[in-house]
Amino acid sequence: MQNFLRSIMDFFNQLGEFGWIDVLDIIIVTVVIYQLLKLTRETRAQQVIKGFGVLILAAQICDWANLSAISWLLDYIVNAGAIVLVILFQPELRQALERIGRGKLFEKASFIPTESNNVWAVDEIIRAMQNLVMNKIGAIVVIQQKSPLGDILSSGTRIEARVSSELLENLFVPNTPLHDGAVIIQGGTLLAAGCFLPMSANPDISQNLGSRHRAALGISEISDALVIVASEETGIISVAQEGKLIRYLDGSGLRSILMAVYAPDQAQKGINSLLHWRSRHEKRT
């Protein structure tokens, strides 16, 4: 408590020496922090920044409360955080340096218009997946939700078009430039195609699953995205979410899962409820 009061007294004492140099210093730091937040806004790195900020705040509070052990531990983590941030934010730092080199550091970010009701996209996605498996064409479609996937989007080709079954089917036609990757959809907008997804490191995954299913599980393990997979070998539609995989889905099963994402107030069944139903059904049979 004494350290906290002393800090407040020091703060008010320093206000008397506050000059225009200090104002300039604060403005520069504010601009740097703002640009960093804007750069990482659409990536998973934003969550890391928030966590690091919480650690800094907790370290300061523990120092004021004179909690020596916890304060020493948090200070050690924060001091080592600079190296950790460089490693974690390597892609973002490279992108920032490239933008500085092009003189576009302060350019306005592009915003994707979204519609308030995108339930119509469910029919387009289902129609496309059914046509793809009918023709034995492989596909992987990622439905982005709350977790930002900016780093995944940057690995592919930006499209930003209205979702349609025709567009989805054309993107996955074999031997076309973007067929060998994932499509990212947010709401009713197809954001990008040809995106590379991280493979799951789960050792318990069946050996019968191919690279598409492993990639679907991989992105579902690190985000809340819903991933739909069409198998070109078996003609099976599968869905991955939260590290779980449901296979052998028909149109109605896929619709119930997609409606839980696009219209949760209209559909109560998501992937967890479908897993529960299947487990009960298997026990009865």
Short description:
The protein has 285 residues and is α+β, with helices and mostly antiparallel strands. It has eleven helices and seven strands. Residues 108-116 and 280-285 have low confidence and may be disordered.
Query: What order do the SSEs take from the amino end to the carboxyl end, as H and E?
Result: HHHHHHEHEHEEHEEEHH
Please tell me how large the radius of gyration is: 24 Å
The CATH superfamily of the largest domain is identified as: DNA integrity scanning protein, DisA, N-terminal domain
Largest sheet: 7 strands, mixed
- How many individual β-strands? 7
Report the portion of residues in β strands: 5-15%
Mean pLDDT: 79
